[in-house]
Every structure is written in C-alpha cells, then in structure tokens.
Design a protein that fits this description.
By secondary structure, the protein is α+β, with helices and mostly antiparallel strands. The chain has four helices and four strands, in the order βααββαβα. The protein has a four-stranded antiparallel sheet. The chain is elongated, with a radius of gyration of 18 Å. The N and C termini lie far apart (about 35 Å).
C-alpha cells in the first residue's frame, strides 16, 4: 500500500458545509471514501494558515489517490494537493537503484 498526504483549503462553499456538519463528520466522510477504495486514513487534522487540513491516507496505489484527488477537487468545496509519502526504507531501496541521468547542458556519456 502507498501513503499520500492530502493538504488543502476549503472554498466558501466548503467552509459553510464544515460549519454545518462539523469536523468529526468530515473525518468520517473521508474515512468512508478511503475504505471504499481499499485503504485507510492514518491521520486527519485541521490546520491554521495556508491550509485548512492535512490528511494522511494509505491506499493500494496512485490510481486510488488520483481518484480521491479528482473527486475532492471537482466538488468545488475544496482545493487540495496530493503528495506521495515514502518511508526511509523506500528511500534506502531507491538509493541503491542505478539510474543513468544526464543533467541539462552536460555532455552525455
């Protein structure tokens, strides 16, 4: 399973809905969506500042994460960003992979 961080802000429409339903119902709605895609919510927080929320979910793949992002952003109530989260062990594996890369403007080998 892959982990993703969803961060974003509510539009005026979204804030109205949040005030009406409350935070706990919003968390339950996100848990239901995530469970329906074969995943789970690891953390759900409301935040101050640029973002109104931060949610960490675990879903089977990027396809499910993209489905959530599309549905959330299409609602008109939320503007969300999605970030792939990698564990230290995944970075260990990535660091051991051999990658042939030529930086822009550098001569090729």
């Amino acid at each position: 399973m892959a982990k993703y961080l969803f961060q974003g802000s509510y539009t005026e429409k979204g804030v109205e809905g949040l005030r009406k339903e409350g935070g706990s119902k919003r968390r339950k709605a996100i848990e239901k969506v995530t469970k329906g895609l074969g995943g789970k919510v690891e953390a759900f927080y409301f935040t101050f500042g640029k973002d109104d929320f931060a949610v960490i979910v675990e879903v089977p793949s990027g396809v499910e994460a993209a489905a959530v992002a599309l549905a959330v952003n299409a609602s008109g109530a939320v503007r969300a960003r999605t970030t792939v989260l990698l564990s230290p062990e995944e970075i260990d594996k990535a660091a051991k992979k051999s990658v042939s890369y030529r930086a822009p403007g550098k001569p090729g080998k």
